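Table 4 source record.
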Amino acid sequence: MAANQLRWPGIATELRVRPHPRFTGLGQAILWCCLVAGPGIACANVGPPFWGGQLVAEPGGVANIDVVHETLSIDLRPLAVGKPVLVDAVYLLENPADERELELVFVSGAPGVTEFHVRLDGQVLASEARPEMELPERWQPPFVTPALRGRDLDYLSHRRREVVPFAFRAVIGSGRHELKVRYAAEAAGYHVGEPTVVRQFAYVLAPATSWKSFRGLDLLVQVPPGWLAAVTPPLERRGDVLRERFSALPADSLALSVQAPVPTLYWGARAVGVLMLVLAVVGGGPGCWLAADRLDKRRRQQGRPRPTWRLWGRSLGLALVWGGAVLACGLAAIFGPSLFLPRGQVSQYGYGVPLALFGLLVLAGLTTLAGISVSLTAVLVANRKERARATPGSLG
């Protein structure tokens, strides 16, 4: 064993000490004595924060205490209304030996974690943030979550090394005890180029192997009504509930991907929006021509003069109507279908919408210029035909 590493018997953790160059000799000896004589320390749930979510993990423990049973409940239903995921973990512990005082660490993930509570036999335990904790590699979050379609989805691509664990001290007496952990945690968002965003969540189970034994896990995951869900390890789904009972830890971590379904109305609105835009672009030119010709014909029938400014004004007005119709139909095609998607689940990522808006503005400007030209041409053609009919011997 290296001189700067220490392992306590029966504890699945390793302490690394980096002595200061000036802190040697007698000072180091005193430090090692204090550490060896100190109470047992067990690293527990630790998880890195990342944008839009965080990881959660099992409490690591000591070799003299058994986890008789764990009930883990992950409620994803609040995601449907833009709220955090709710996690409840209940551990039935058994200590066959004498009372022990332990310092446990439970991961909270991102700084935005709220309502973090720990109770031992109904008594609230004080907790504090411990961002300096380092995690074993096995306790790190999974690199992917299962795919709903296609390949698996990258998970926690950035800031994997950042952690915001919570530490708490617990006195575990002889016999059985109930440890409860409850908190709210954000789910990550993954944009896969579909109308709705994929929500990702992970829960690390590996630290539970630090205890003397782990005898069973009841796992319950609730998803919003009708949402798509994929999970590893596989769970049985009945309706909007995924559950399974394990006699041992099924994997080092639980990884979840869920997504709100895309309603049929969305696709219908999208098709209608595109059709309206096409009709506005294609039908605007003939519409300007007919409207300009009719207005000029009415003027001739009433025998009114035709000032140049009025001709240009009418042409500009008709052109603006065409350009405005194109702009309105384009905006409806871009944003209208999203109104039929579940609130807070619209996938808006990348430059697709800005590019579409830029293209729409260019198209509206071009149709406006074309509208002026079409309207003026319609009036000029009508006037030429009128003069031709009024000229003796004309074939018109």
